[in-house]
């Protein structure tokens, strides 16, 4: 790749099953390039389900369309049973094991708590990801860096594990740090471990959970890896329908509100900070920008044009019966407030609807995106 070309980062936020929307946008973008063309992105940053997507795409940085096709093939054939144990026996035995472990004496190590057993996801990631390809893409110069962000339950910090060119340095900032590592399945499981839904993952001596929890600066990994431009595909839920605000919010409404806050609010604040920084730098001459070792970083922020909730309500009946029963037992009413359902509805009809939504949203922005990716 040309040395003078800007380094473009792809940043994918988290959102469980909603991350299928990102696949639709990437599918549209990939069709603008020849079949054997390299990826327009050389830097990848992902959190939660977005971390799973960027790892798959980065592994095929030398052939962008192939990477996207493989990712679409995986997502379009997903079922809940490929993500967590969804059978009546699997769910009851897992929850019984969780309950029994907490009755044991304190000297017995207790497993991390989660309502759903994500062991099938570990098996799926081990089957579909060839992590050695990441290092090959780095050595070939097709990949500058990839970062997977997790949250430490020990320190309360956001940790970005990155793999990339040798000149990339680790960093330590307030409530966040970057550490060099060889990305593997455990990093992806940790980054996508939604609190209470999936159990935390142990890396070394520390348990980690969903990367969105303590992530105060989602743009930082991309900036630290040298991005000149950042394409952000956010999964913020559009609240298009006015609700009856006189009714007290139920558990589902509160849970959905908390989930949306975890996955989206910090990105909005970080984008505002980047825009202010760019405005200040734009007022300075280029020589002054070099002196302070800062540069203007352009960005595009993509997000869904429609709410996820109507789709989640439409395809709610596709969710495994035992999962629906568990949600009912915990006091959730997915039909009335589908925000939480939209995160865990890993069923083909819903997934394909999100891919289609992302595809059409990207086509609506085609001219802007093409100019940005030059």
TrEMBL record:
Chain ranges of the PNPLA domain: 10-225
Entry protein name: Patatin
Native source organism of the sequence: Photobacterium proteolyticum
Lineage top rank: taxon: Bacteria
UniProt xrefs under Gene3D superfamilies: Cytosolic phospholipase A2 catalytic domain
Entry GO MF terms: hydrolase activity
Family annotation (Pfam families): Patatin
Active site, renumbered: 48, 210
